[in-house]
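Lab manual, section 2.4: Encoding a predicted structure.

Procedure: take the sequence of the chain (140 residues), apply the prediction step described in section 2.3, and record the output as structure tokens. A sample record is shown.
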Amino acid sequence: MDCKDLKDIPATATVAAERPIRVLAAVSDLIFASKIAAAAKQAGCPLEFFREPVKLKAAISSEPCVVIVDLNEKCLDPVALIVSLKAAPETCHAQVISYLSHVQIELKREAEKAGADLVLPRSTFSQNLYDLLRQRSCHT
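Recorded output:
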């Protein structure tokens, strides 16, 4: 391969590739909040927690982000949140990862129908959170 065969990469693409993905979480359970915080820190991803859907939606920008939703969150209607995120043009690009108890099969179906990109049992979510963030991250 010759240098003339290399394609120019715009500077903005390089900067975007180095920037870690943002993690926005609609989670108030302290145990899961601490697990998410530890995984995000380890993966080098900035993290913000939200209890209000309006503030969460406002925090989503055109940059890639992962939204983590506890489907048993009491402060909001998680399925309605997912529907609204996926329906709005300014937030539909956000990847939604949600989790629930493994016995909540109907709630899992509702979340998938609402547009969640990934719906996991709590145990699987906990065990694989770091890897999930790294896979969805723009950096290595």
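Check your result against the sample. Confidence is low (pLDDT under 50) at residues 1-16.
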